[in-house]
Amino acid sequence: MIPFDYERPADVASAVAAVRRNPNAMFLAGGTNLVDHLKLGVAGPELLVDVSGLPLDEVAEQPDGRLRVGAAVRNSDLAAHPLVRRRFPVLAEALLAGASGQLRNAATTGGNLLQRTRCPYFQDISTPCNKRSPGAGCSAIGGHHRDMAVLGSSEHCVAAHPSDMAVAMSALDAVVRIQGMEGERSVELPEFHRLPGDEPHRDTVLQHGELITAVDLPGSAPRSTYRKVRDRASFAFALVSVAAVLEVEDGAVREVRLALGGVAHKPWRATRAEEVLRGGPAEESAFRAAAEEELADARPLAGNAFKVPLARKLITGVLRDLADQAGEER
Amino acid sequence: MVVRWVVDGVRCEVEVEPRVTVLDALRERLGVRSPKKGCDHGQCGACTVLLDGRRVLSCLALAVAQDGAEIVTAEGLGAVWRAGTGELGGGDPFGSPAAGSTAGRDSGEAGARDRGGPGSGETGRSGSGAAGTGPSEPGELGTGSEQDPEPLHPVAQAFLDHDGFQCGYCTPGQVCSAVGMLDEARRGWPSHVTADVAAEPELTDAEIRERMSGNLCRCGAYPNILAAIRQAAGGEVQR
Amino acid sequence: MTELDPRAIGAPLERTDGRAKVTGTAAYAFEQPVADPLYVHPVQSTIARGRIRHVDTDTAADLEGVVAVLTHLNAPGLAEHDPELHVLQSPEIAFRGQPVAAVLAETPEIARHAAGLVRVDYEQEEHDVVLRADHPQLYAPEVVNPSFPTDTAEGDPEASAEVEVDHEYSTPMEHNNPMEPHATVAVWAGGHLTLHDSTQGVHKARSRLAPVLGLPEERIRVVSPHVGGGFGSKGTAHAHNVLAALAARVAGGRAVKLALTRQQMFDLVGHRTPTIQRVRLGADRDGRLSVVVHDVVEHTSKVQEFAEQTAVSTRTVYAAPNRRTSHRLAPLDVPVPFWMRAPGEAPGMFATEVAMDELAEACGLDPIELRLRNEPATDPSSGLPYSARNLAECLRAGAVRFGWEERDPRPASRWDGDWLVGLGVAAATYPRYYSPGSVAVIRFQGGRYLVRIGAADIGTGTRTALAQIAADALGCGFRDVLLELGDTDLPTATVEGGSSGLASWGATVVAAAERFRAEFGDDPADGAETSAETPEDPAGGTVATHSFGAHFAEARVNALTGEVRVPRMLGVFSVGRVVNPRTARSQLIGGMVMGLSAALHEHSVLDPRFGHVVNRDFAQYHVAAHADVADVEAFWLDEHDPHAGPSGGRGIGEIGIVGSPAAIANAVHHATGVRIRDLPITPDVLIR
Fold it and tell me: Which structural domain range is residue B48 located in?
């Protein structure tokens, strides 16, 4: 890694200013992704601005009922938080499905959202990658892309987003709170991450110098769950994952929110499936039909076509399990 | 930049540039070699230490970002534990390391002794270096003599009892990780295999395996590691 | 041969290095304390074939803290030409990842940074890294590792049979990936080179390096008291040893430290070749084999040949009047392959044992019964009687322990929620190797017996087990023995490989002990010392000494997702006498876990466009993690094999990985009705 300076500002405003004024500066939180990239040569900042000690480390209920999760809250603390476990089990489950115990102890909410793809060619600076160097070409499309996207990719990039937490947050309609030089703004999580399009080097809508300060979780989703399929029983990224929230009333789907992981450049909010399901019967055939609708436009590559039937079956299975649970609770 | 730590109960300071990780600062600058470099990218767990009471990967932690930390490695675990509980056999063997001292960044007073000189490398820490067959020679933390070794931390002892290792390279990380993991379990943290994430988890075999999955063992000692941790957790583990 | 009266032998003693390992005070190569070292970071080629046209080291060399940048233009010359070790001597590139430069600097961070600043221009040639069964350059090597005939044939291998199965099986490229990356600390002082290394054989490493470095062996010392795993990859010197030695030459007397990164481990320290295997079995309706054909295609490097002996175990495990085995190599622009735990047996018996399962199905026979009907009386490979062949007993005993009787033979017949459940079985065999050429010295001093031999403990527990053998051979207490190993200053020893270490070194120690007692009696004076060489092989061409085992596995396959879980594995082994049951059980289980890892997870993905392994870290190259491994149990028959040597054992380090992948694949078939013939078995393979 190239040498860099290290600063630890005392407040958010100073942190934002420090990065904003230096195009070669980056924020450092838990470091579990960034330090990895520094060693690989994927990231080469000249200045790291440490935000892990800023007062952004609380999980606090807001007056309007939202749960505000500070950007510096560690993943393990968030997953263990009683309010998260009760109100948003999908989020706790998603966090616990990710990484390892040690990594979760260091990784932060903000950092988790901003983690970058695990595409082998992105990580290997000796192979061409449009995300690292726009225009260099995409090595994954004609190469080892088994873990890459089947939805929303472009001819420039087929990377998949690796986060589990973000998939759950997408299904929960979370809102990302951001501090920039101009002030605060909010972005709904399903809009926070981008599709690659013509600019695969841009993972999110954040501008340089903007700092995530918190993620708000509205309402509650007590009947929700996260299911992840991976190559190992633990400590592996998703082949496909599903975050699902389901409310059933009188055998009909009263509310459903679905997001998929491992299949796209961003957590894939399955809005088409949701439309098909809402108000319809809470039955397996309906779940399957909705899943098929959502995946109708999937564009798999030769090496990851299995993700399409896997996603279909996973959606169907997860909704079926949630519906069964709802049935049992009566 | 100078960072000041308490490492295995001993106060120390070392001058590092920002690129140096906690792992490399410990191993290459402070002579603390028990945490191992297996992958250097947070993917194997061999570098696991207890930092401010939590198990973390020292290879992904920048030293400059951890100024003031209290670090416990497998080498110091026994002594720190003994100092914290004040007696052998009694007390809570899974209390936070250095339970007698205040955790957190601004102390490290209780039980901390000074290491000679600002970190310039070797501190004469002895080990079973060349062709060693027995336990370490007496060191700064009073690890005891070959004839009458000091008691090990219960987790380390359990690993020894159950042959929870073979080549030993992942072992210091496994031991620190297990200590941290048992603490997390006692606090009621759920895991990926906890059936109801909102309920109090029970430490079953499946829970131990899941919670320890961040520590790879290429020698495949997992079944014995499980048995060791089960022993160390006492009667708390359901099969 | 004198048999030992076991007192320490057979006791499950705690490892003598156990305390050091659980406290992290056992010092591995990179941790040996040296004052004021320099750090070495290699630069690797980014083409797979061609030559260096130009290398620019100015920017790198100008960095503060950089002491030297070595390339083929300025590196010290090497003497003897050893192809794999011929680094920084020529502009020719033979594989992607080949070292083309090395930076020597004050800190590892500076060395690594500078390495990234070295600019190399290449003349790139077209490379070939893809193994195909019809590769145009397939050739038959003179022998396969270590010295077996390449092809064998008896009778008419093309003969037909009442029941036939004939399929292709494949295993992927794999990397040993011990937890401790290869590392060397090298010091030049007074014309002597000291290497603190991580190796399976200090003397072997030295004898390979000495001629390359142009030094007499006496001027090189290799020290390796603790090794963080090897699994074959540390069974010889590799390029990084030479890089460290070259760097030490220009370091002005300072020690140099080199540790390979995990990524570099995928290029420079050997690997297991991928295999494409055809197995054809023919039998009568009762399952008695009449045809056994096993043809193997695999790769080798163009730099140096390594021919994995993939079909050799088939020559031993089953007899038939019509047999053929063959090995063909495709020479590719890949790094040099080398030993990986049970080279040959591991990939070969995957194919054989899945094929046997298919034959059982075709004959309508229970797969254990099929094997019981095919137990040869003598070794079909050598024609010699076996010292012991108890595979049948292993299968029977294992079947009882595993509850095989309750198994409904119909595939896809047992459900547990969304999970299909199946049981599988496979046989295993591993040859007992005996390595002559070690020397042990025993010296009585201060009331204890110092036993000195340049052996290695790579996690095997040798340090403890060898001391147990010494104690019984000397007739003294275990605590009266002080064993030293892992240093070329100690008497010469053969490399740990082929599961041969304990038996061979053990025989050497026993010979020294016998001579000691003969010379000095039971009450030796202080300083009494003697030595002995490894005696002649007690089996010496009169009996075939092989170990056998039976592997059982339960597999659960999720019908929705294709996820595979293995909640139970059992191995029952016939390995002769076990010296230390504690460490032996760990070795066997460890091998089985590695077999599970091979069955479900491991795959080095070589990108044909670039020529290197692209999934080159632990996040992508999956080895079994703790949650993947549930109940794994290993037992062994109560045996002792005097033909195997005074300690009576035939080696246990590798047989665990042999056959276990097939047991799992067979269990997956039983669970699902889907026959998988290629490893690894990942969810995508089973999703329909």
Answer: 2-114
